[in-house]
């Protein structure tokens, strides 16, 4: 009886949430013009944000309306799928119902989005996928930085700094996400091939700071001679890592023989601050601004019926051919003490 | 209610007369054999395991979760439920900090004195507990649904207020409790230890504490016996909220920042720890000491898996399986049916 009430209540609550989610997806109705004449000089672009709880994605979310204005994109009120592929599917349906002609999304689950992509294809609605590459289903363009290159850059940096020997810790993101997997695999295989003298400890932190802190602390207790740390995401791993190193008295200048080399990933302002203070050594800047800009650029191009070919682009990137579409691999610069004040880095543009 | 109480009476009566009275005193410690097994297994996995440094780390890493378990155990013993504790772990420190840091660092712009951050954080935790208590005791709503909704609401409040950003620039005073060391042992361990000692004493020897068992076992009987059920349970919810907020303070100090996901998913760990520690989901049974042994088991398992370097893909499977085995060992050792 107790359980029955509980289940019924949970179901009710879930329904209520779904209804409210749909409600928010509808947004205000737009005044005249676009609704009556589809595809006249760039149609309505719908965008779904993948989550609201990460520093990187919040920066991206902030760039989108600015870039839309700059590029003259007719952007519909954005939706947010809260890192849940079921919500993304529902949001996409709602957006299509409202007359979206191009959909920009960032599916964090790259497998479960396949049937949605298939149904969008039958409706002739092009899809731009940001940050992740769907495993199956047609995409007009994937806009992401080469995550394998992140892992390789981090490996090269640590390998050279350590002179090819020693122990490093890799704080990994969730292995169920393609980005965590790509970074981990590239880092691991580069270390194995190019720096076989370095031992890598892989810590599955699931993008969680609390796990990262515990694992790093335990590993340092076990191997006090660890000399390097690669963090998959500055947003979640930076503060815990610094706190653990501080407690161990390991925040030391690079010249000190006991210095632990730390390389991060993301390029948020807090990482730059830590580089300036000498607390960490480097980060790979994942271009939140370019993600927003080129997502909308390709969305607009798709609405205008333009097509693209594999090969180098005019913005220092390369378009590669995928079995299910194209991918524009944006550059992701390595940021160290030397170039941390470069005003072109997006982390220096946000407050 | 009556169908629930009668089988209990039967089981109590059916305890074998030979073993019952002697072992009965220790049945809340059925996890002790499990802990011994883990300590032995751990020392084989890595020589570093049994060093004071590593064991101190385990205790420090688990101190925040332990406090949530303490809060949950109190509420479970009183026969209620609180799922929203995990959200309080993130939201209360976030709000407390945002009231004191400047707007440029993500605050509200009020810039109250930094020393107030912790008291404000505890106050926020207490208010969440009070609101839960209000809805459950006065409005007579189901504790499960109320706190499920509150879990979403409280976490949503944190996301909304912080706009999903992590808070990095925190006042030093706020980080102190979670990162300081007193007499060679992290302050978090002292604080958690002291609160558990207080909980064990209160529930073991004081009238107000004992009344939780009476209420959890049979609220109507407790009321008939003159216990102010509503007031006591309400107080327990408020205390639970405050303890969860304190857990958030310790966790923040350990991590050096408040991420938007702080505390998310903890409640399952808290329930697992409380239940394997012998606290009944139906109320009225279990001890705080038992809940503490549950936390220790979870902390030791996590530590051993990390030391062993179990691959990420398999870790959850191994982790869940070990908890199941721990449950079985404690069942065999305690000889008491789980409920």
Concise overview:
Chain A is of the alpha/beta class. Chain A contains ten helices and 15 strands. Chain A has helices at 2-26, 55-71, 85-97, 114-122, 147-161, 178-194, 209-222, 234-247, 269-276, 288-303, and strands at residues 44-49, 74-75, 79-80, 102-105, 127-130, 141-145, 166-172, 198-204, 226-231, 261-266, 282-285, 311-312, 318-322, 325-330, 334-336.
What's the structural blueprint in terms of helices and strands?
The complex is a heterodimer of chains A (351) and B (339).
Chain A: H1 2-26, E1 44-49, H2 55-71, E2 74-75, E3 79-80, H3 85-97, E4 102-105, H4 114-122, E5 127-130, E6 141-145, H5 147-161, E7 166-172, H6 178-194, E8 198-204, H7 209-222, E9 226-231, H8 234-247, E10 261-266, H9 269-276, E11 282-285, H10 288-303, E12 311-312, E13 318-322, E14 325-330, E15 334-336
Parallel strand pairs in A: 1-2, 1-3, 1-4, 4-5, 5-6, 6-14, 7-8, 7-9, 9-10, 10-11
Antiparallel strand pairs in A: 11-15, 12-13, 13-14
Chain B: H1 2-14, H2 20-24, H3 32-45, H4 52-77, H5 85-98, H6 117-138, H7 143-162, H8 172-179, E1 181-182, E2 185-186, H9 187-205, H10 207-217, H11 219-224, H12 229-255, H13 266-276, H14 288-308, H15 312-334
Antiparallel strand pairs in B: 1-2
> CATH homologous superfamily of the domain at 147-285 in chain A - what is it?
Response regulator
H and E string of chain B: HHHHHHHHEEHHHHHHH
Average predicted local confidence, pLDDT of chain B = 88
What are the low-pLDDT stretches of chain B, counting only 5+ consecutive residues below 50? 1-22
Q: What fraction of the residues of chain A are assigned to beta strands by DSSP?
A: 15-25%
Overall radius of gyration of chain B: 20 Å
- How many helical elements of chain A? 10
Largest sheet of chain B: 2 strands, antiparallel
Low-pLDDT stretches of chain A: 1-41
Strand order of the largest sheet of chain B: 1-2
Could you state the order of secondary-structure elements of chain A as H and E?
A: HEHEEHEHEEHEHEHEHEHEHEEEE
Largest sheet of chain A: 9 strands, mixed
- The share of residues in helices of chain A is 40-55%
How would you state the average pLDDT of chain A, rounded? 85
The number of helices of chain B is 15
């Amino acid at each position: 009886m107790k359980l029955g009430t509980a289940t019924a209540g949970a179901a009710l609550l879930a329904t209520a949430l779904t209804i409210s989610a749909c409600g928010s997806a509808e947004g205000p109705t737009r005044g005249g013009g676009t609704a009556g004449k589809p595809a006249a000089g760039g149609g309505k672009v719908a965008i779904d944000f993948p989550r609201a709880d990460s520093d990187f994605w919040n920066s991206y979310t902030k760039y989108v309306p600015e870039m839309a204005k700059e590029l003259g994109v007719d952007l519909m009120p954005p939706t947010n799928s809260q890192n849940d592929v079921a919500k993304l599917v529902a949001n996409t349906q709602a957006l299509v119902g409202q007359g979206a002609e191009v959909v920009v999304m960032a599916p964090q689950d790259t497998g479960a989005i396949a049937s949605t992509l298939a149904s969008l294809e039958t409706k002739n609605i092009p899809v731009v996928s940001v940050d992740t590459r769907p495993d199956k289903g047609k995409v007009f363009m994937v806009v992401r930085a080469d995550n394998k290159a992140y892992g390789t850059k981090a490996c090269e940096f640590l390998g050279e700094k350590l002179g090819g020997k020693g122990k490093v810790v890799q704080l990994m993101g969730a292995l169920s996400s393609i980005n965590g997997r790509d970074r981990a695999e590239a880092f691991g295989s580069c270390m194995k091939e190019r720096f076989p003298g370095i031992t890598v400890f892989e810590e599955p932190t699931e993008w969680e700071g609390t796990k990262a802190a515990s694992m790093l602390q335990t590993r340092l207790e076990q191997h006090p001679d660890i000399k390097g740390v690669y963090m998959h995401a500055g947003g979640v791993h930076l503060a815990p890592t610094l706190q653990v190193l501080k407690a161990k008295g390991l925040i030391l200048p690079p010249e000190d023989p006991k210095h632990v080399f730390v390389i991060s990933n993301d390029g948020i302002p807090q990482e730059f601050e830590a580089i300036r203070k000498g607390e960490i050594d480097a980060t790979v800047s994942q271009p939140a601004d370019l993600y927003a800009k080129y997502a909308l650029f390709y969305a607009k191009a798709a609405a205008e019926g333009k097509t693209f070919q594999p090969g180098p682009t005019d913005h220092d990137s390369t378009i590669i051919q995928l079995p299910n579409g194209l991918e524009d691999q944006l550059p992701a610069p390595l940021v160290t003490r030397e170039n941390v004040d470069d005003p072109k880095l997006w982390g220096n543009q946000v407050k | 209610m009556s169908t629930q109480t009668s089988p209990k009476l039967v089981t109590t009566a059916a305890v074998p007369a030979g073993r019952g009275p002697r072992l009965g005193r220790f049945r809340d410690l059925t996890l002790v054999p499990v802990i011994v097994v883990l300590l032995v297994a751990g020392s084989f996995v890595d020589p570093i395991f049994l060093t004071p440094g590593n064991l101190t780390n385990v205790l420090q890493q688990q101190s925040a979760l332990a406090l949530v378990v303490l809060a949950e155990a109190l509420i479970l013993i009183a026969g209620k439920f609180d799922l929203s504790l995990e959200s309080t772990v993130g939201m209360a420190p976030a709000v407390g900090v945002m009231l004191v840091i400047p707007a440029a660092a993500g605050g509200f712009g009020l810039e109250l004195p930094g020393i107030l951050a912790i008291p404000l954080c505890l106050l926020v935790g207490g208010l969440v507990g009070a609101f839960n208590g209000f809805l459950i005791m006065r409005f007579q709503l189901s504790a499960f649904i109320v706190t499920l909704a509150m879990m979403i609401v409280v976490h949503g409040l944190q996301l909304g207020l912080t706009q999903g950003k992590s808070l990095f620039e925190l006042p030093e005073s706020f980080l102190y409790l979670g990162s300081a060391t007193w007499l060679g042992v992290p302050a978090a361990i002292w604080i958690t230890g002291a609160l558990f000692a207080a909980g064990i004493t209160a529930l073991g020897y004081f009238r107000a504490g004992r009344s939780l068992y009476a209420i959890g076992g049979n609220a109507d009987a407790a009321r008939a016996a003159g216990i102010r059920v509503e007031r006591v349970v309400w107080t327990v919810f408020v205390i639970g909220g405050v303890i969860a907020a304190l857990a958030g303070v310790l966790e923040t100090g350990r991590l050096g920042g408040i991420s938007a996901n702080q505390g998310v998913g903890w409640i399952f760990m808290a329930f697992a720890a409380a239940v394997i520690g012998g606290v009944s989901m139906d109320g009225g049974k279990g001890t705080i000491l038992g809940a503490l042994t549950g936390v220790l088991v979870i902390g030791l398992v996590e530590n051993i898996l990390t030391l062993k370097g179990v691959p990420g893909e398999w870790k959850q499977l191994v982790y869940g399986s070990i908890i199941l085995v721990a449950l079985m060992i404690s069942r065999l050792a305690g000889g008491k049916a789980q409920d």
